[in-house]
Amino acid sequence: MKRITTIFSLIMVVALTSVSCKDKASNKIVADNVESAVSRDEADKLVPVMTFEKTEHDFGTIQRGTPQETVFTFTNTGNAPLIITNAKSSCGCTVPNPPKDPIAPGETGELLVKFNGSGQNQVTKTITVSANTAKGSEIVRIKAFVQAPGAVPAGPVK
């Protein structure tokens, strides 16, 4: 009895499979969907690209509490307007100030970064810029060697 049930089940599976696969895949394509996919893919090619002149700035040796600032210059090398939605640093001692207006393709912009000079010894801070680029965010860094006021520069002793 088990053998008959197994054989009958296999025949049913083969029959159902052969009946359900008779439709051609090319008959299922909807022309409107193809047109919308083509236009969507063309729009996806229009992406801004944020290219920085430098991605890291070294302030060198500074005295603790001495405010510093630098400008990261970038160019939109893509083919769509660049919109910066947010810029945040890895700590509260560093304040980024991105441009508010969109940057057209081929145009340049400036990201002003202010550092209050806090910390001790070698300090590195990261600024994350969120924008409508393909990656969604770009990263720049600042670093400095922070000395206590009145400290003697490190080096060989004579």
UniProtKB/TrEMBL annotation:
Gene3D superfamilies: Immunoglobulins. This is DUF1573 domain-containing protein. It holds the Pfam family DUF1573. It comes from the Bacteria. InterPro entries: DUF1573 (IPR011467), Ig-like_fold (IPR013783).
